[in-house]
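Practice problem: Pentatricopeptide repeat-containing protein
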Amino acid sequence: MSDHRAKRPADAAASPAAKRARDPSVPAFPTYNEAPDLPAKIRILCEVLAKVGSALDVDAALDHEDISVTTDDVEQVLRFSYAHPRAAVAFFRWAGHRHLGHEHSPYSWNLVVDILGKNRLFEPMWETVSSMHSQRLLSLATFASVFSSLAASPGGNPLKAFMDMPRYGMTRDTPALNSLLSALCRANRLDDARAAIPVARAEAGARPDADSYAILLEGCEAAADPRVAREVFDEMARAVGFDPDNVPAYDSFLTTIVSSDPSTALPEAMKYLAFLSEHRCSPGEKFFRAALAAHLEARKLHGAILLWNEFVGHRGLIPDMEMYNTMIMLQGSLGHAEVIVDYLDDMAFNGVFPDSGTYNLVLKFLLKGRKLREAAAIFSEMVKNELWPNEENCSLALRMFLDTHDWEMGIKVWNCMVENDLPPLEESGNMLVSKLRDDRLPEACKYAEDMIDRGIKLSSSTLSKLKQCLQKIKKERVINDQDAKSS
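Answer key — structure tokens:
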């Protein structure tokens, strides 16, 4: 598995970041610098490979460190040496010759194949594959790596690699075909993946199965291509029929459909959902999430409730926080604030604990729906759980409680804001003093004094009106005293 290509000095000196800057298509490889808990021995070896000027210097540098290595050590070093492929290969040879009696693990060999392939060093990659073949170490995992590297390379031909598998004693069966399809789809080569199926069937006898079509439909989803997704779905129905266990395929297909054209996507997806139900098949959680989001965007509550009842009530799906939030937003935005608290109760029942985002969502809709009793209860629950209202809710809650003369809750909101430094303190403080001034002047003075002590600025208008009220009370007291004396 010799490598006859000399490394250019510029490439040897350039950092991985510099290479990616020159060529954005160069992948970002993991490095030992990103692994803080790496054993000292492994870190030293990785540093040697990163610093050597050429592959020819690796042996001397490693011998100088006088470190013995095990098979596990070799695997760890290789995992963090993708950015230095030639040095990694030299280390692999050095470790085999000096310490392992040339008995590397299959995983180490596969790592070398992957390192070379990911760096587009295909000639030495194939030489390594040949060496593995001679030692009977090849596996489908090896060719999965080869397919992936070729698919990601401009002009790479992973289908040819698939067709050449018998040269290396490997079978071109359905799992191998699926590995090829997966590599092509991950590289956004959906058309090539579809074209590979008839070739593999005709020339290699490899027939696609349900997993094959699931892979293609996942590729359609990644490409956001509903037209091709419909074609693949029809091909799948003809080739393998309907299988209740093929949830990933149906999940990707319906997610692709429901996430496409907003004007037609939702009705079409619901028709396909009904069609699958007739064949006792169903998509999964991914579609349910996307369909709920589509109902929210279309503001279609009835359809969302039917979908929720089917997946959650009938099929037993446990919703996550995002799903609950979608239903809360849909119900709340359509003015059904009275029912959204039920979702909080349901979340607790299913072991999904709402965070500050969910609580703030519920509080906002309750306040805007003027459900102040329920809003007060939710606010108290938030404070108890140390989850604070956001700026919009602080301002809205304070205003609404004060406007309805619920002084106790208004002051409770203010105290929460002050104690936890929640904005908008200045605006809300002025509001509090102004609202209390006419009905609860002593408390208005008390909170005004506290705000000044805390450095919260009261406007000149607020202070002036407060002063006028105090002067008015003082005059009334003088008049009352004079009346008392004259009588």
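Discussion: DSSP finds 27 helices and no strands in the chain. Students who identified this feature from the tokens alone can consider the problem solved.
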